[in-house]
C-alpha cells in the first residue's frame, strides 16, 4: 500500500513539475538552434564609400532582397525582403543618404534611409503601357534645389524628387510600337535622351529638357535592316546596336539632332566570325562587348565612330560598369577565367593598353564562373588609387576581392534552396577525425559548480557570461561523427544554382559544397534546372562500409519533355560519384520501398510519354523489381486539365534500346473534375518514411478506434474557377472549396466535403490517419483550419475479448485496397489568425511522441501547434473521461501562444519550406526551416521524457546523494545511541 | 492620367488615412500602424517604439507587401475594389488581421474591421492587440522550487520516513498493527504491474 501510494505521489509530483507549454528561456537561444541570414544572387550592387562613416555596399538580389552590407566583413547592416511579385528593377543611392529602389515592373519607387534601412517614402508610378524599366540618378541635376531621380517605366518618363518622392513632371511615350531601349543623361547638361526602336526598323530619338519634361526635339530614322536586342550606349550621343541578322554592328549617333547610321559587318572586325552576336551592354564610355558562340569580343569605338577590336577571348569574361575616378576619367574592370584562377584587370576607359591593376586570384572550382563584377576605388594614404571588386559567382556566392585576395565571401546560394534531405554522419571509430572535446574531470566539475551557482542565483555577472559561453561553445554538438541521440546529422541541400551543400545540424557550418556539373549550363543543356534530392544509398547492416549517397535529379529546360539529368553524390566527401544525361524526360520520380544488396534504393522514373525507367539499371535491381512488379501503383495529377490518374506497370518495353530498362505502363483509373466548377489547387500525401506506432486509438470509456492507415491516400483540394484568384476578387456566393480523400490504388473517393464561401490558397499536411488544411473563409473573412480524421470501421468490432481468444477476429486478415473499405471520418474546423506559407508535422523515430503542427506564418515565423488543438472530438464541455484523455474544450479559434514559436524572436525571411527529421531519441525531432534565411532547431513535442535536458544539474544530484548518505550515517548513529540508552535503562 | 500628381500630393499632405481612387478601377489604401508608447517600455521589447523599419504590412496573404514610413503610415497602390485582408507582421507584437472593404461606388469611404474581435475601425489605424513574449521568464531561485525538484522530493521523503514513520507506528493500535502485518504477509510482495494504473484492468 505504502509503496503504491508513494509511487502515485511521486509520479504526480513528477508530472506536475512539467510545464505543458513547450518553450525556451532567453539564455537558451543558440544552444540547439541556429539561424543564418542570406540575400540571394546579387543582381546589382552600389557602393557607398564616403570618407566618413562606415563603408558599405547596397545590393539587390534575385530573391527580391535589398540589403546594405558591411564592406569590411560582409555582414548585413540591414535588409528588406520585398514581396514575391515585387521584383527589383534597379537600385541606386541618391543624395548620399537614400537608397532608391524601383520595383514591381517599374511601378513602385521607394527610398530607404542608408544608415538604418527605414523606408523614407514610397511612390506609385503608373503609365500607359508595359515597357522596360530604367532608373537613373543624375548626380548634379537639380530642379529648384531638389535632386531628382529619372525613371522610365510603363511607357512614361518621370522625374521624382529625392526628398519626398513627389513626381515633379512626367512625359508619356505612347507611340504604338515604340520600344524605349535607353535613357541617357549626358553629365553636366540639362538634357535627357530617350532612344528606342519602333516598328522594328525605325530608330527614334527624343530630346527632353530635364528640368520640366518638355520635348525639345524628336527625330527618327529608318534602317532597312531592322534591329535586334539591346543597345549599348558608348558616348552620350552615340549608341551601338545590332541589325536583325545579328551580323552587322550599327553605330548610331544622334549628335545635334541628326541621326546617322554607320554599318560595320562583324566579319570585317573578326576574321573567323560565326553566327549571330549578342550585345553585352556596358556603361563604359567608348567600350562595349559582343558575344557570339562562346567568344567574347571587346570593341572600342574611336572618336570617328570607327570600331576596333581590342580583345577577343574564349574565356568567360565579365565587364563591370564604369567607375568615375577623377575628373573625366572612367575606370572599369574585366574579369576572366583561366583554369582555377581568375584574372582581374582594371583599365581606364580611354586607354585600353595600360592596366591600372592586374591581379590573379585563386578561385575554388566549386564556385563556377564569374557572373557579375562591381568595382569601387579607395585612396590610400600615399594618394594612390586602389580598387576593390565585388564579384558574383555562378553558384550565387558573393566575394570581395582586394589586393589579390578574397577578403570575405558569402554563400548566398543558400537563399534559394530547392530541396533538402538528410544524411547520417560517419560512425566514430579509429582513424575518423574527431574534434577535441575530452577535457579533464576538474574542468567538468568546475563547469557544473558554475551551473549550480547559476541555479542558486549566486553567480556574478562574469560567472553568468562564462556559463553562457560554455554552453554555446559546446564543441560536442559540431563533432563530425554520429552521436548516440541522432542529433548530429548532415542536411544536404540543393540550391537553384545547381550547387549541393552539406550543413552540419549542430551549428550550421558548411561541411562541403559541390557545384554539380550535370546542372551547369553547357552546349547540350542551356537551361538546367535542379528538381529533387533523393536518398540513393543509406548503408546499414551489411553495407556498413559504403558511404551514403544522394541522387540529384535535374532536367534541361522548363518544358515537360526536356531530357533529365542524374547525379550521384557521396554525402561524406561531397564527391560526385557519377552523373548521367538521360535521353528521356522526367515527369515523376518514385522511390520504391526496395533496396538491393548494397542498400541502393530502387527508383522508378516516369517520363512524359508515360514510360517507366528503373534505376539502378543492374540485373539485381531488375530481378527485385520484376518480383514486385504487380505491387507497384502510382498516380499523376494534371492540374491544368483537372484530372487525376492512377497507373500501374504493364510490361517491359519490347523495342528495347541498349542500356535502357524501360517499362510500359497502363492507366487504371482517372478522376476528372468538372473544369468549370472545380480547379485542383493542392494535393498532399503522407510522407513515405513516416512511422506509425499504433493503429489503435484508445478513447474515453476504454473504447478503441482503429485508424485507417494507408500509404495510398491522397488529399486533393479544389476550388471554384472564380475563386482561384486572390482574396478580395470573389464574393462568398461564387466560391467554394472541396476537399477529397482519394485512394490512389483504386481511385475510390473515400471522403468528400465542401466548404461553401471558402477559397484558397490551401496549405495542407497529411500524417497517420489525419489531414489538416488551411484555407480562407470568405464569409467570416478569416482563415480557417480544418482537420479530417479517417477511421477503419471494419475493425471496430474487434473489441470483444472472446472473439480475440477464439480467433474470430479479423486483425490478421490481409488488407487489400480492392475490398471496399468501411471507413468513417470525423472533422472539425477552427479559425486561425494568420496567413500561412507552409505547414509541416513533427516526426519521430517510432511515432510514439504526440505530434505538433509546424505552421510557417506570413510573418516568417514558425509556430508549433499541438495536434490536440485540432482534434475532431473536441467539444465545448468535455466529460470527465474525455478530460482525462486530454481533450481540450472546443474554442472557435486556435490559440497562438507566443512562447510556442519555435523561431522565438527570429524571422526566417522569405520562408518557403519546413522539414522535420526524426532524431534517434524518440522524444526529439529536428526542424529545418528555409527561405532566404535558414533556421534549425530541435523540438521535443512532449518534452524530453527520455533524456535529461542540457541544463540538468549533476552537481545538485551529487550534493543530494552526499546529503542522503550523510543523513543515513547520522540517523544510524542516532538510532544506535538511542538503542544503547534503551538497553542501559 | 494627370490625376496622379494631385493624388500623391494629397497622400503626403493629409494625415487622415483614406481610400482614394486612382484610375478607373484601381484604388489606394492608406493607413497607419501605431504602437502605443506604453507598450514595450516596461518590459523588454523587440521592436522599439519609433524604430519600425522591420514592420511589414501585407495585403491578401502576401500579394502585396509594403513597409512603414517613419511616421507609421503605409499605403497600397492600384488595389481593385473588393474586400481585402491586411496583416501586420511585427516581431514582438500581435496584430489582428483587418478586413478592408474598398468600394467602387463611393470611393473614399472607410470600412475596416478587425477580424479577431469583429471590432470596426473608423479609420485605418492599426494597433497591436497585445505584446508577444517569446521566452519563458526564469523564475528566481526559491527553496520551494528546490524542494519540488525530484532530488528535493527524495530528501523530503527520506526525512518523512525517518522521522514520521516511527511516530505513526508508535501511535498505532498494537492489534491493528498485527492485523496489517498478517495481511501483508498473505498478499505477498506487491508486483509492479498491479501498481500501474493500467495494470488493474487486466
TrEMBL record, chain A:
Residues 24-412 form the EMC1 first beta-propeller domain. Residues 1-23 form the signal peptide. One of its GO terms (cellular component) is EMC complex. It comes from the Eukaryota. Component of the ER membrane protein complex (EMC). It comes from Gossypium stocksii. Belongs to the EMC1 family. Residues 767-984 form the ER membrane protein complex subunit 1 C-terminal domain. Keywords: Endoplasmic reticulum, Glycoprotein, Membrane, Signal, Transmembrane, Transmembrane helix. The chain crosses the membrane at residues 952-975. Pfam families: Beta-prop_EMC1_N (PF25293), EMC1_C (PF07774). SUPFAM superfamilies: Quinoprotein alcohol dehydrogenase-like. It is a single-pass type I membrane protein. This is ER membrane protein complex subunit 1. It is found in: Endoplasmic reticulum membrane. GO terms for biological process: protein folding in endoplasmic reticulum.
UniProtKB/TrEMBL annotation, chain B:
Coiled coil: none annotated. Pfam families: EMC7_beta-sandw. InterPro entries: Beta_sandwich_EMC7, Carb-bd-like_fold, EMC7. It is found in: Membrane. GO terms for cellular component: EMC complex. Residues 177-202 are annotated as: Disordered. Keywords: Membrane, Signal, Transmembrane, Transmembrane helix. SUPFAM superfamilies: Starch-binding domain-like. One of its GO terms (molecular function) is carbohydrate binding. Its main location: membrane. Residues 1-22 form the signal peptide. It is a single-pass membrane protein. Residues 52-154 form the ER membrane protein complex subunit 7 beta-sandwich domain. It comes from the Eukaryota. Belongs to the EMC7 family. PANTHER family: ER MEMBRANE PROTEIN COMPLEX SUBUNIT 7 (PTHR13605:SF4). This is ER membrane protein complex subunit 7 beta-sandwich domain-containing protein. The lineage of its organism: Eukaryota, Viridiplantae, Streptophyta, Embryophyta, Tracheophyta.
